Amino acid sequence: MDMSLPAIQLTDVLHSPLPLRSRERYARLQLVRQGQGERVCIHDGRELRLRDIDAGDVAAIKRCFKRLSPEDIRRRFLHSMSELPEPMAQRLCRIDPAIERAYVLEDENVVPGEIRGVGRVYVDEAANSAEFSIVVEQEWTRLGLGAMLMQHLVDECRRRGLSEIWGYVLLENRPMLQLCRELGFVQRLLADEPGTAQISLAL
Ligand SMILES: CC(C)(COP(=O)(O)OP(=O)(O)OC[C@H]1O[C@@H](n2cnc3c(N)ncnc32)[C@H](O)[C@@H]1OP(=O)(O)O)[C@@H](O)C(=O)NCCC(=O)NCCS
Predict the structure, then answer these.
(1) Which of 136, 171, 201 has most ligand 1 atoms within 8 Å of CB, for mutation?
(2) Does the C-beta of 69 come closer than 6 Å to ligand 1?
(3) Which neighbouring-strand residues pair with 186?
(4) Cis peptide before 112 (omega within 30 of 0)
(5) For 148-189, how does the pLDDT look when each residue is reduced to its tens digit (9 = 90+)?
(6) Would the pTM count as exceeding 0.90?
């Protein structure tokens, strides 16, 4: 790990700034560019590596899923799941870069390394938009990681020239709705899916 690189504020690496959030939040995280990905320095001294997901992450993704609460699983996948089937784990890790991007937050301070958060976008070329999904392991929430992942996803969509990023969020999922509100997303209720909102950000 190259500790000699200068630490830069999260706001400095955002290519297209989103509406500003609390100053306290931006002070909590620092990103340091690093060979493969970026080192994320959390205010409490812990560190993670933000990098692209790869095919070698299948076992770690399955372990990460096992640490999620039933509520987090339902909020992420929009239905209950007791386990992550192998084909689905494979599918989540072997992405098609032409239409997908997925970031993981890897904890390299444990052996084997553990994935503490995942954010991904799936592009709908016909609609020129992308659907996002995101999850942060509970022990690592309220540190700004969810907002940081979302900002990376938004930047990725802008780089691709997409006109919108959107996702489905359960109406009971106040943390995610709040997070997205702070980032400027708007919310639309779905007549045929009571209890679920479609949230979107025009890019
Ligand atoms: C929603 C989720 C991604 C938030 O991740 P996170 O790392 O805690 O997010 P952040 O720390 O960046 O928080 C950003 C803001 O979201 C809101 N928020 C986050 N958790 C919250 C909570 N438990 N209650 C209320 N607001 C909350 C707050 O406004 C927070 O800002 P603040 O800490 O300055 O008040 C995480 O809780 C999660 O993975 N949930 C399960 C999966 C899921 O719901 N995915 C979304 C659908 S795809």
Answers:
(1) 136
(2) no
(3) 200
(4) yes
(5) 999 999 999 999 999 999 999 999 999 999 999 999 999 998
(6) no
